[in-house]
Amino acid sequence: MASSGIRPKPCKNNCGANIYFDARSAIGKTPEGKWVPLLWDDEQDIGTDTPHQCPNSRYAQQQQQQTTQQQPVRPIGPAGGGDHEEILRRLDRIDKSIMEITQSLAKFAKYLEGNQRMADSDARYDQDKEDGFA
Ligand SMILES: [Zn+2]
Questions:
Q1: What's the CA gap between 36 and 42, in Å, rounded?
Q2: Looking at residue 72, what is its pLDDT?
Q3: Distance of CA 58 from the midpoint of ligand 1 (Å)
Q4: Which residues neighbour 27 within 8 Å (Cβ) at sequence distance 6 or greater?
Q5: What is the pLDDT of residue 77?
Q6: In the prediction, which pLDDT does 26 show?
Q7: Taking ligand 1, which is a single-atom ion, which protein residues have CB atoms under 5 Å away?
Q8: Running along the chain, 134 residues long, what does each successive block of 10 average in pLDDT?
Q9: Is 105 helix (H, G, I), strand (E, B) or coil?
Q10: pTM metric for this prediction
Q11: CB neighbourhood size of 47 (10 A)
């Protein structure tokens, strides 16, 4: 019963695999109606009913190129892969840093204000001198 009369043939991309086409397979054709090469199991001499993902096909090579190009863009490294808590912890740290910076700025602003007042009084002092009141 397992033998359906389908015989495999070598993949035309010379990858060394045997493939077959099966009209009755659910994945034997693409939605567009194109034949999907399915992988033949040489040892058991049966069809595997899985698409033959040919390493030599132009499509596979394009996919590989795209994957290589996309790799540097991947934002999350293999260790911290999408760790939600780690992100929250970092946000918390950033929050605290911003608070500290705001406090420092407020202190600096007061310091500047004090300097400005001193400068103002100096100017007034100079002005007084010039007017002959000193
Ligand atoms: Zn192949």
A1: 18
A2: 59
A3: 10
A4: 36, 38, 49, 50, 51
A5: 55
A6: 92
A7: 11, 13, 15, 17, 54
A8: 77 95 93 94 95 86 71 57 83 93 92 82 66 59
A9: helix
A10: 0.44
A11: 22
Distance from Cα 34 to the centre of ligand 1, integer Å? 16
Q: What's the confidence (pLDDT) of residue 106?
A: 93
Alpha carbon distance 4, 21 (integer Å): 12
Question: How many angstroms does the Cα of residue 6 sit away from the middle of ligand 1?
Answer: 18
Ligand 1 centroid to Cα of residue 120, in Å, is 85
CA 47 to ligand 1 centroid distance, Å:
15
Q: CA 94, CA 100: separation in Å to the nearest integer?
A: 10
Distance between Cα 37 and ligand 1 center (Å): 9
Give the model's pLDDT for residue 4: 62
Residue 87 Cα to ligand 1 midpoint, Å, equals 43
- pLDDT of amino acid 120: 76
The b-or-e profile of 68-82 (16+ CB within 10 A means b, else e) is: eeeeeeeeeeeeeee
Looking at residue 83, what is its pLDDT? 82
Give me ligand 1 centre to Cα 63, in Å. 15
